[in-house]
Predict the 3D structure of the following.
Amino acid sequence: MSDAERTRSNTDSHNIYADHAATTRLSDAAFDAMLSFLRDDYYNPSTLYSAAGKSKRAVERAREQIADTIMAKPNEIVFTSGGTESDNLALRGAKPCRLITGSIEHHAVLNTCASLAEVGAEIVYLPVSRYGVLDPEILENALIKGDNQSTLVSVMMANNEIGTVQDIKSLTEIAHKHGAIFHTDAVQAVGHLPINVDEMGVDMLSASAHKFNGPKGVGFLFVRDGVGIRPVQTGGAQEKGVRAGTENVAGIVGMATALNEHIEHQNAEIQYLMELEHRFSETLSDRLGCSVRYEHNFADNHLPGLLSYSFAGISGETILHRLDLRGIKIATGAACDSKEAQVSHVVKAIGVPEDMEAGTIRISFGMDNAPEDAMRVADELVKIVCSIARM
Ligand code: PLP
């Protein structure tokens, strides 16, 4: 039995988890790698006695492994508590006077921008197309207008609600041409899409372990050599003084193990998730008329396995709860937004017709989904949408 088949058997025919963009299950290999650092090898890696050597070496080995997966150097990896902290460290640590960002960024970026605006930074929000794509020309126009000595451009690599993948290489080239530095929130992309920081040219890149079958509460920020950032929290000298606080040794080891696993199987994962997506959308297209739905996944490039739809006159929350009763877990938008009833800023930014805004759902498949799962989610979704439409 292959690893993928073994993992897939974790989803039984009744319970289907199709919300991998919210979080993923910790992989068995990551769990095994973490265990000894949670219990036996618990020493603080900053201490000097020999017993702590194992923790220290494990952290440095993980740093090398993670750097290798994105073609960075080990000293360019800063361990953090996850995507939110990595984004904060990049945006606040760069101390920009001007910050240019997209209108469909995660709240970890948008709310940090709002907070920086309060202390005097100028924030420019760029619009996106109806598929969520940021046109490099729009970025260029924004950069032409100002002095970019202290400008930071922050554009996410893959959107967490609609899956759009941006042309980061082109956007970075434009930022650099005009003297700005470039950060990308790659939280949804790391592990799932090929990433080469040299080819992309980015100065900083955020990642979070729980999006690629690593543990929650750990992530990293890539900071290119020579790009100076200031710490945002005061404390010890860990992570070369950029991020104070005792390292989450087990989490870091689990993150490196999970990321390596993904990189090893990445091409197969992409193919497999595209196949699931295809089966899902075929079933939906065959059985639902186009008139009731609006798809956000026509961008040339989008995150494999992530599908977003809006339905006219139906609440996404109603769909979510009815699917939940059938054992199927999906999302209405970003998980972080699920307590807020208002329409997501991403749905607004891509101009979903007003009567469909509230009827937006996100389905995100992962390697633990079997092909039959995709068919069953589509089947149940059709039944729910048709029964509500009849009412
Ligand atoms: N950025 C993006 C694009 C995300 O999808 C998320 C989480 O959903 C985050 C940042 C925040 O990451 P974390 O949950 O590790 O704080």
